[in-house]
Amino acid sequence: MAPDLALATLALPGRPVASRSTAAGVPDEDARALEASAREPDRFTTIFDRYFAQVHSYVARRLGSDLADDLAAETFLVAFRQRAKFDSRNGVVRAWLFGIATNLIRRHRRDEVRAWRATAKLPPPAPSSGHEQRVADQVTAQGASRELAAALAKVSAKDREVLMLVALGELTYDEVAAALGIAYGTVCSRLSRARRVVREHLGHTDPTATRDEA
Question: Where are the alpha helices (DSSP H) in 13-108?
C-alpha cells in the first residue's frame, strides 16, 4: 500500500494544517440523532449516511480498499452497539467515529508498516518508449511514494496516528484530541514530531514536486 502524498505535503515547513476548531460538520444535529438512536435505532442511519464514506476513505488510504470495506463496516457496527455511551460533551460524532476506526486500524499496524517498508524497497519502473510525459510522471510519483514510505515507517505509532488523522482524515486538532482521548497540546507535540521525522528523512524536500522543481 503506497502512502498518500498528502502526508508528505503536511510534513513540509510552511504548509497549512488543520486549525483548532470545534465547528466540524453539524455536531449538534449529529449528537441529537445519535442520542435519539438509543431509543429509536432507525435514527442511526443519519450517522451512517453522513459519515460512512469519510471513514471508508480514511481506512482505504491507510490500509487499502479491501480492508476498508470490512473495517468501515465494523466501525459503524461498534458505534451502533455503543451509541448509548456517546457523550457530546466529550467531542463531536465525527471524531468519535474516527476514534473507533483508529482502534480497529491498530490491529493492522504491523501490516501497514511492513507494506511501507516493502514499498520503499521497490525499484523504479523501467521507462518505455512513447507517451514520455505519462511515464515520467509515473516514475516521479512512485519515487516519491518510496521515499515517503520509508519515512513513515520511522515515525512512532502514536505520532503517526495523529499525522494520519490530520492529513488523511482531515480532522481538526480538537477532533484528533477527542478521537484519541488525549490533550490538545499532546496532539500538537505528536504532530510536530511526526512532521520532523518525515522532513528529516526526505531531506526537507517536497516529494510532491516534479524533478525539475525540486
Answer: 27-37, 44-63, 65-81, 93-105
Distance CA 58, CA 102 (A): 10
Q: Rounded to two decimals, what is the model's pTM?
A: 0.76
Beta carbons of 139 and 147 less than 8 angstroms apart? no
Q: Which three cell numbers stand for residue 39?
A: 431509543
- Residue-wise pLDDT tens digits, 77-87: 999 999 998 88
The residues, any chain, with a CB within 8 Å of residue 152's CB and separated by 6 or more, are 3, 7, 116, 160, 198
pLDDT on residue 57: 94
Q: pLDDT tens digit string along 203-213?
A: 765 444 444 44
SS3 (DSSP) at 172? coil
From the list 145, 1, 150, 146, the residue with the least C-alpha distance to 64 is 1
SS3 content of the chain, % helix, strand, coil (to 5): 70, 0, 30
